[in-house]
Amino acid sequence: MNTMKGLIAGAMAASVSATDYKLTWADCGDEDTHVKMKTFSPATISSGQASTMIGIGTLDSKDTAATFDIEAKGITTGHWKKAISCKGDTSASKTCTLPLASGTMTFLPMTPSKGSTVVKVLIDLVKSPQWMAQSTSIKATSKTGEKIFCLEIVSAPKRRSEVLSRDETEKLGVVWRGNSSEDDSHLQLSAPQTYPADFSWCDKDGKSYCTMSRNQHIPQYCGSCWAHGAVSALGDRVKIARGAQGVDVNLAVQHVLNCGNVGSCHGGSIDGTYQWLHRVSKETGTGISYETSNPYLACSSESKEGFCPHVDTTCKPSNVARTCGSFDQEGGSCTGLDHFPNVTIAEYGSISGKDAMMKEIYNRGPIACGIDAMPLLNFETGIATDAGSGVDHVISVVGWGTEKTSNQQYWIVRNSWGEYWGDMGYVKVAFGALMVEEQCSWAVPNTYTSIEKNNQVHCHEGGDNCKASESSSVVV
To answer: Is 266 among the residues known to form the active site?
Structure first.
């Protein structure tokens, strides 16, 4: 287990060693500007390495000599100000220093000529800067004062990914895009000739089969979306199995953080939660505990956020399921339980693509999927349509819908940022947008504890008759 935690910490350190910046661009020329910029790359740059920003456009006039002007504005010492003005001849290379010794920008020589025109600027961020340009314009003007080109680049720190790479995932013992058996039950599911235009487990035949929305970021920040997305989708499937009868079963994300060893507050994988739970279910006959016996703390063993350094998250009975019978001064203590309400799963699998997603959701319930969350940080309402540039977050997909005016189809996505965000914690994501269809995971519930099944072990208020020995082994 210590080795596994070391791997998690190593993956976390690798993921935060550099600061990534997302770049967006626009042609800032007007009708008198001779070059119309068509493309720009890269989409991101990172501190600690050199990157070449390349803009390509078409010049509508003959060859001409010109001068360039790079002007960058950013926030430093709390104020928005112009931080760079770098000028020179386009035919010669010129290097300018970035503020606070954070690196350099170099304009690479070029001669504007009729037809394809390539503008290159080398940016070398030698460290994560206290200052980073938020708006950079690169302009060129001919010797006679004509506007040659104008390229504007806006940069913003890229959101830290909460999804580990394939290499990091496999080092944790998680099978990449794994399935619990070769006889994949998803492949046996039938699909209707046509799917309904609107289908949601949150509103199916007048009932909601969706469990509660969650917030992974309180009591302090924790990048545990990978556990939240999987646990929420599984909770929904248990509710479906129960016909939406009785009190909702809300599963303990903290149990996964304490014992799963498939991720942490610094990231995990899309299907690691289900792989761990399937193994525990088979080996012990007991699964993930309910949140009433293991509340979410937003802590994992390596987290330094908030009160996490003072919290014991080791995998032991009291960190699987517990109760505290009284105040310490009254002789009470917290007791780990050897019997507790829980959910096991029979199988799990991975899918990708719109058709597979619709078939799985329609037949068996919500699924957990990866998503590019960067465009969602300041999202308010509507349909998210950005293509996305990489999966960095995990959510659950509960269905789909169709916007009546535009006929735009979209996924109904439940996030784990609380109801204050988006549409009460949900967002509509256009089909094909934000990388949602890239990788998803599903699980089939097996056993669950409930009144109607009459399978509860009845523990006392203080847990004394269900007390587990703290020396008891816990399968992780």
So the answer is: no
